[in-house]
């Protein structure tokens, strides 16, 4: 999304708050868990992630803008600069300049240089050009469609090819591009100097398109700061952006914490999860941009209620109480909740209030009335939980296909995206309904498969849930269930890429498409348990962006 705000209003905020950001913005019990550490490379000084006290944000913007208005001998340097801006998450300040550069760089698609061709292909696909990868990459392959071995020594070309391969929409050349680039980058690791080897390893472990941009940005900045040729104006602007985002995220987190404590559900339902930080990380990741602060706060409230309702179904309520709870949700009336247990009444009131507050906000800001769609979304989620409960209580074993279909619903992702759709000012119509459902279902299915693939249980979660992996293994005892699920996840990514980057012009706002992509990217971070049942990537990500 193109972020619109007064730049001058952020300059004093940045100056006054920098000392706080330098201390990591830590507070309370999180101080020990998320203690920051300097980025140090062997034989080098620690990389500075701080700004001088006399830093001028407006001047920094103008300095980078001046770089983009230069007229180099070729567009190659400009394209590389656009890539750095995107990787550092500061491209939204220069959308007009980037559009002009992209328009004038179309000829690089026909370049005989692997880096030029693949970088232009990826960037153009990201900004909306429809370019067939097979056509662009054909010149780098032999008659069998295999990449020529002479490109195996082109490190920058291989990195770019590897990045491009993850924007696959089902193209044969990109399957081979991924295989070729991965093989030769891994082989090259043993011959690279430490800083470059570290960068290549991170590119392999966390490919750009399927990884969180905000997470990758800090690592990319550290890499740039160790290069012989540097663009200090870009680096300083990126640092300022990091600091401003951290301050805003800290403020949002404090607001959510106050709301959660005042709500009192963690005391009233002690068996339910109390993970407000983790819930906020979803919203912080999905919705990027300073202008979406209010939406991130409200989305976190929705996410928290999904988790609480899930725990009520799994851990707390009797089947009879759940039937009454389900009926009350369908009626959407506070009076309908009066016969429920007290903890359910509290949950019902919170859910009811959050949803109606969001509907009121959407009505005031966008002139839409989404309450019927939002009520239906909650009813659908409750029905999904009821189906899971029925399977469990009757010892019924669903097919893996039925389980996954229902599991997409009970992931809570469709409900969250329905709220986001309206918060971002878009309506649900007969014309766009199928497209929206596909954009929503892909990340939801990726989430369900990732979650079910791991053996780790969520913190404090002792309930009995089904598992697609177990059900598939039951139906296919000699198959490799995990490989099957990874193939399914790759297929969902291809479908999502197709929805976001295909030739058909989407009527959905870019911010909604971006939210869908970011949700899918967050899944591997949120469910990336290690052998000790910990989430190292999530801890690193949280420390980097919030504390």
UniProtKB/TrEMBL annotation:
A Pfam family = Terpene_synth_C
Terpene synthase N-terminal domain location = 63-203
Listed cofactors: Mg(2+)
For biological process, the GO terms are: terpenoid biosynthetic process
MF GO annotations:
magnesium ion binding; terpene synthase activity
**Entry keyword set:** Lyase, Magnesium, Metal-binding, Signal
May I ask which residue range the UniProt record assigns to the signal sequence? 1-16
Residues in domain Terpene synthase metal-binding?
262-495
- PANTHER family attached to this UniProt entry: OS04G0344100 PROTEIN-RELATED, S-(+)-LINALOOL SYNTHASE, CHLOROPLASTIC
Supply the name of the protein: Terpene synthase metal-binding domain-containing protein
Q: Which organism is it from?
A: Aegilops tauschii subsp. strangulata (Goatgrass)
């Amino acid at each position: 999304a193109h972020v619109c705000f007064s730049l001058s209003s952020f300059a004093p905020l940045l100056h006054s708050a920098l000392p706080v950001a330098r201390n990591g913005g830590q507070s309370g019990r999180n101080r020990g868990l998320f203690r920051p550490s300097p980025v140090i490379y062997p034989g080098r000084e620690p990389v500075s992630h701080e700004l001088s006290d006399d830093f001028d944000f407006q001047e920094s913007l103008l300095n980078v803008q001046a770089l983009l208005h230069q007229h180099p001998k070729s567009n190659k340097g400009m394209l590389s600069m656009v890539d750095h801006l995107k990787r550092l998450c500061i491209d939204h300040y220069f959308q007009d300049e980037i559009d002009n550069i992209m328009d004038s760089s179309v000829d690089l698609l026909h370049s005989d240089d692997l880096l030029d061709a693949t970088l232009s292909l990826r960037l153009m696909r990201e900004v909306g050009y429809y370019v067939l990868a097979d056509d662009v990459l054909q010149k780098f392959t032999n008659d069998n469609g295999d990449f020529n071995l002479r490109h195996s020594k082109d490190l920058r070309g291989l990195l770019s090819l590897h990045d491009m391969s993850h924007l696959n929409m089902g193209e044969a050349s990109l399957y081979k591009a991924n295989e070729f680039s991965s093989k030769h980058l891994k082989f090259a690791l043993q011959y690279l100097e430490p800083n470059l080897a570290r960068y290549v390893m991170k590119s392999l472990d966390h490919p750009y398109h399927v990884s969180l941009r905000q997470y990758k940005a800090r690592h990319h900045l550290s890499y740039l700061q160790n290069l012989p040729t540097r663009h200090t104006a870009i680096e300083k602007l990126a640092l300022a952006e990091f600091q401003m985002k951290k301050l805003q995220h800290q403020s949002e987190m404090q607001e959510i914490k106050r709301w959660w404590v005042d709500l009192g559900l963690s005391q009233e339902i002690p068996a339910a999860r109390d993970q407000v930080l983790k819930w906020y990380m979803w919203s912080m990741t999905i919705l990027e941009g300073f202008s979406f602060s209010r939406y991130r706060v409200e989305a976190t409230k929705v996410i928290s209620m999904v988790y609480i309702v899930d725990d009520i179904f799994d851990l707390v309520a009797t089947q009879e109480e759940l039937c009454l709870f389900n009926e009350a949700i369908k009626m959407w009336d506070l009076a309908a909740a009066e016969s429920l247990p007290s903890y359910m009444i509290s949950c019902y009131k919170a859910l009811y209030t959050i949803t109606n507050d969001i509907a009121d906000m959407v009505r005031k800001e966008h002139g839409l009335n989404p309450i019927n769609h939002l009520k239906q979304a909650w009813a659908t989620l409750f029905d999904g939980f009821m189906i899971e409960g029925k399977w469990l209580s009757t010892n019924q074993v669903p097919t893996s296909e039925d389980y996954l279909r229902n599991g997409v619903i009970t992931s809570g992702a469709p409900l969250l995206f329905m709220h986001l759709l309206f918060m971002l000012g878009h309506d649900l119509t007969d014309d766009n309904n199928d497209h929206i459902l596909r954009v929503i279902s892909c990340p939801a299915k990726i989430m369900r498969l990732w979650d079910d693939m791991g053996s780790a249980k969520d913190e404090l979660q002792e309930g009995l849930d089904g598992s697609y992996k177990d059900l598939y293994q039951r139906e296919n005892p000699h198959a490799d269930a995990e490989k099957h699920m990874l193939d399914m996840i790759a297929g969902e990514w291809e479908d999502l890429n197709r929805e976001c980057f295909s030739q058909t012009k989407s009527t959905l706002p870019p911010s909604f498409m971006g939210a869908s992509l970011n949700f899918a990217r967050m899944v591997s971070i949120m469910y990336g348990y290690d052998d000790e049942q910990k989430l190292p990537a999530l801890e690193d990500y949280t420390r980097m962006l919030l504390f």
